[in-house]
Amino acid sequence: MNPFAKRLKVLVPMALIGVLALTSCAADTTDAGADGAARTITIATSNDAPFSFTDATTGELSGIDGEMFLAIAEQQGWNVEVFVTDFNTLIPALVADKADVIVDAMYITDARKEQINFTDPWYMQGEGLLVPAGSTVEDRDDVAGLVLGAQTGTVFTDLIDTLGGSETQYFDSQAALITAVENGQIDAAFTDSAVLAYSLVQKPNPKIKLVSPYEAYFPGTIGAGLRMEDTELLADINAGLADLKATPQYLEILQKYGLGEDNLSE
User: Fold this and answer.
1) Which of 24, 126, 206, 237 is within CB 3.0–4.6 Å of 219 for a Cys-Cys bond?
2) Alpha carbon distance 230, 117 (integer Å)
């Protein structure tokens, strides 16, 4: 299933799977334990690119959320360990003390706020509009009368049915959807902006483009999740996040994975 769609779902308890640990290179001990050692924070992630994942080459924590948390951890003097589990078991893992914080492009929703606390917003993310490189389409209003596409099983199939296209087509994978735009089979496609942007960073394609700026129909606010009682850790992460947002590194991390100023949060 498309990562955007699954991040909109309310989580239900399931058996936890998989554990992976690594340590960041934070050097100082501004948040040291009683023995003077640097504090270790365990993050929970489903290991999804481009959000929070372990780089297959370096073994290091990577991704939009992953690198933002590493920047916060370095500023706070924390070591970082990673607990890997399915996306829909992230909240149960947190509540069961398997991890201290969820770092995995989790949408802040009212339903989730009944179970856990959220940090201040990390960034914004919604669907992207993909068109041929020479297209004059600038927003959703411009796609009426065009051939539209989306990936089967995602919320975007419902969206394109409302936009007045001359025809709608559905594809089993994002790769097939991208190819359909590239070869002119469809005129515009709607899919998860972060995943699509990252795929274009990994494999640039001069025949297609993401419309930008673009105001998402399904905007989502991303945050990190913590247990209700961990108010001190919440305050520390928010302080580190505020410091990160005040530096060029914040936008640089977004741009590294194909996002940009449209995705900034205050």
Assistant:
1) 126
2) 8
Give yes or no: residues 191 and 224 share one domain.
no
Cβ neighbours of residue 57 closer than 8 Å, sequence gap 6 or more: none
CATH for 225: 3.40.190.10
End-to-end CA distance of the chain: 30
Task: Tell me if 215 is assigned to some domain.
Answer: no
Same domain, 41 and 156: no
Whether the model pTM is above 0.90: no
What are the DSSP E strand ranges found in the chain?
A: 40-45, 53-54, 61-62, 79-84, 101-107, 117-118, 123-125, 127-132, 147-151, 167-171, 188-192, 208-210, 220-226
Task: Dump pLDDT digits (tens) for 17-68.
Answer: 333 444 333 333 345 555 557 899 999 999 988 999 998 888 899 999 999 9
Q: Do the strands 147-151 and 167-171 form a parallel or antiparallel pair, or are they unpaired?
A: parallel
Rounded to 5 degrees, φ, ψ at 250 are -60, -55
Residue 28: predicted pLDDT: 37
Q: Which residue has the tokens 């929970």?
A: 44
Please count the structural domains in the chain. 2
Under a CB-based contact definition with an 8 Å cutoff, are residues 91 and 12 in contact? Answer: no
Q: How many CB atoms lie within 10 A of CB 201?
A: 14
- Residue holding tokens 């959320």? 65
Same domain, 117 and 238: yes
Give the phi and the psi of residue 194 in degrees, each rounded to 5.
-70, -45
- Compute the residue count for the chain: 266
For residues 22 and 74, membership in a common domain is answered with yes
Report the SS3 class of residue 184: coil
Domain assignment present for 195: yes
